[in-house]
Design a protein that fits this description.
Elements: H1 2-24, E1 30-40, H2 41-47, H3 55-63, E2 68-72, E3 77-83, E4 101-110, E5 116-125
């Protein structure tokens, strides 16, 4: 009987290891192109401020280290922006477009809780 108990324990350990390894795998990104407004998260979410009239404030928030986001105003979807590689300022590619409408090409990650995170590959001003 002890042998069966040991085998059952071993099987449970292997199943647990396999499940934890599957959970630890990196999510698969989806290439996307999204058009929206580069917004200052703090002022937009807490005070509803956005747009060209808020640009100077957004520049100040950027200098203070606030991470910007991309707001698809037509679909009402907010994307957290990140660089497409480690140790890169996530605002570096969008800094000149703060509070302006742009088109971003990149990789979309669906984070836990439904958060959408967009790794920026290319940014261009919308026409």
């Amino acid at each position: 009987m002890k042998v069966y108990g040991r085998i059952a324990e071993l099987v449970l350990v292997l199943v647990a290891l396999g499940a934890s390894e599957a959970a630890a795998q990196a999510p698969k990104p989806k290439p996307v192109t999204v058009t929206g407004r580069i917004v200052d998260n703090i002022c937009m979410l807490s005070m509803g401020q956005k747009g060209e009239g808020h640009r100077e404030c957004a520049i100040g928030c950027d200098k203070a280290g606030v991470r910007m986001a991309l707001l698809d105003e037509k679909a009402n979807v907010l994307y957290t922006l990140m660089a497409d590689k480690p140790f890169v300022d996530p605002n570096s590619q969008i800094r000149e477009y703060l509070e302006r409408v742009v088109t971003v090409k990149g990789d979309l990650y669906e984070a836990p809780g439904g958060q959408k995170v967009l790794a920026i590959k290319e940014v261009s001003a919308s026409k």
